[in-house]
Here is the input.
Amino acid sequence: MDSIDYEILVCLKENSRENATNIGAKINLSTSAVIERIKKMEASGLIEQYTTIISQNTLGRDLSAFIYVSLEHPKYYDEFVKRINENDSIAECYYIAGDFDFILKVVTKSGSGLEGIINYIKYINGVSNTRTSVVLSTNKRDVCLLPEKTDN
Here is the structure.
């Protein structure tokens, strides 16, 4: 990856629907060269997917929280992950090292919605402990991180 690829990624990060002609105009490259470079980055796995970011606030989901979860034993891992994936209010799930086994990002409409999700989690077989932190405000939200810029 060189500096031209980096500039293409910057454009795609700002708007993944930006067409190759517009990107080429911004970075002084032909449309065909932009398309070729994008295809190479897709083929290499650098670009994994294109997605839509849906405003949760617009949907009335303005309460976010992080729930830390401990399991009694690793044998409960598969069932826990299966059950977490079945709940649409759980946006992210990470298996972590430290005092807890998982951290979940939850997005919901209200405190009672959060209460329901916490109870849902506590009733999953093998869950031994939870801790919840409610988000007061979000100061940075990058859904895609650019690679470190090189001097090429």
In short: The CA atoms of residues 92 and 105 lie 5 Å apart. The chain has a mean pLDDT of 94.
